[in-house]
């Protein structure tokens, strides 16, 4: 019976280590880092239990030669963990932005609904073809 108990403990330790390794590589291991640029479409604060900042970046480009040469729109959906970055992005809707992000294999509910997590804003410029229009407060109108 003592030998069976040792074998059970060894198997249990191996299973726990395996589950810990799986969880690390699925949820905390950074698969890739990069920069995306495009027009910021939206940034919202939403969620049922954990409220997170979720955003959408619209990237324009051309389709491949096999599908013709028409313009297409690519969406980059992302989450933002840092409130300061999210607040800055909320003031940039409709502008061209460059965002630095980390890509994870899986998402955690308190980190956001996407596997891409933006952690830095590199640049913000007005969208092409648009001019800045000053916003007048109620007292100036």
Explain briefly what this protein structure is.
With 141 residues, the chain is of the alpha+beta class. Helix content is 25%, strand content 40%. The chain has a domain at 30-125: OB fold (Dihydrolipoamide Acetyltransferase, E2P), CATH 2.40.50.
Can you tell me about this structure?
This protein has a domain at 30-125: Beta Barrel (OB fold (Dihydrolipoamide Acetyltransferase, E2P)). The model is unreliable at 133-141 (pLDDT under 50). The chain has helices at residues 2-28, 83-90, and strands spanning 30-46, 52-62, 71-80, 96-104, 116-125. With 141 residues, the chain is of the alpha+beta class. It is 25% helix and 40% strand. It is elongated and about 75 Å long.
Strand content: 35-45%
SSE series: HEEEHEE
Structural class: alpha+beta
Distance between the amino and carboxyl termini? 87 Å
Topology:
Layout: H1 2-28, E1 30-46, E2 52-62, E3 71-80, H2 83-90, E4 96-104, E5 116-125
Parallel strand pairs: 3-5
Antiparallel strand pairs: 1-2, 1-4, 2-3, 4-5
């Amino acid at each position: 019976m003592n030998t069976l108990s040792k074998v059970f403990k060894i198997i249990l330790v191996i299973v726990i280590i395996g589950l810990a390794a799986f969880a690390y590589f699925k949820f905390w291991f950074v698969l890739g880092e990069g920069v995306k640029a495009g027009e910021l479409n939206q940034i919202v604060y939403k969620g049922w239990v954990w409220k997170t900042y979720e955003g959408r970046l619209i990237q324009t480009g051309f389709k491949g030669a096999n599908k013709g040469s028409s313009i297409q729109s690519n969406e980059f959906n992302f989450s933002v963990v840092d409130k300061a970055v999210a607040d800055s992005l909320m003031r940039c809707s409709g502008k061209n932005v460059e965002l630095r992000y980390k890509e994870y294999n899986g998402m955690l509910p308190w980190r956001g609904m996407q596997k891409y997590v933006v952690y830095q804003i590199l640049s913000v410029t007005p969208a092409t073809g648009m001019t800045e229009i000053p916003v007048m407060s109620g007292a100036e109108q």
